[in-house]
Target: ABC transporter ATP-binding protein
Amino acid sequence: MTHAIELSAATSGYAGVPVLRGVDLHVDPGEVVALLGGNGAGKTTALLTLAGVLKSIHGVVRALGEPVKAGRPYRQARNGVVLVPDDRSVFANLTCRENLKLARVSRNLRSETEDLVLQYFPALRPKLTVPAGQLSGGEQQMLAVGRALASRPRVLMIDELSLGLAPLVVQEMLPTIRTIAAELDTAILLVEQHVDLVLEHSDRAYVLNHGRIALSGDSADLLADKTTLRASYLVEEPVR
Ligand SMILES: Nc1ncnc2c1ncn2[C@@H]1O[C@H](COP(=O)(O)OP(=O)(O)OP(=O)(O)O)[C@@H](O)[C@H]1O
Model:
């Protein structure tokens, strides 16, 4: 089976300095996979590598069966590999509807995509004419994910879904993310700090520590063995 996205023995970083080191990771269509790890573990670096923003130093980076060409993230997005960055990047002065429209226009999509977004995020319906800057943090995150959804991605990567959000909001959004994956057959890779919550609402998970995979497996198994999970965050940096 061709994975929707895949890192195989992948090493990547900044200015030739490795941050991710020999990472194997994949996400299949319809799966929600959590990418966990402490601060600076390399989670964002992994997403940027898969999105074609960063070039790998070694190893294989594939998306939708093709090698990812770094430096052309817009092409990746057009092909259906979309990253929602942790700053959400909604246009504060534009209304919700205009934000969604921009996603559609730039990718030449049809108008029923707004209905699709509202199907998954009905809380945005009364906000369609409200400037995005006036939305709550949770609504802005729904808009950011909704805008990504408007392009009908085959791969959706979300960096720090919960950044600045109340746990209750995250608790509401995670089941929706899972429904999107199941109903649209989208491969979803989630970076998330609320470990227990995301493990409850994902199929599999990887824990990154110092740029290496310290633990991986079914989310339910990881959730059931907290000792091993906690230990995976505490692995000492390997001596090089
Ligand atoms: N643009 C950059 N140039 C150089 N080093 C960077 C750059 N961005 C990140 N790094 C370094 O790469 C390492 C991994 O960063 P990354 O952002 O991938 O971690 P993370 O797991 O997403 O952490 P966090 O949860 O804190 O965002 C860190 O040591 C960080 O300082």
Summary: The chain has nine helices and ten strands. The longest helix spans residues 167-184. The two ends are 35 Å apart (CA to CA).
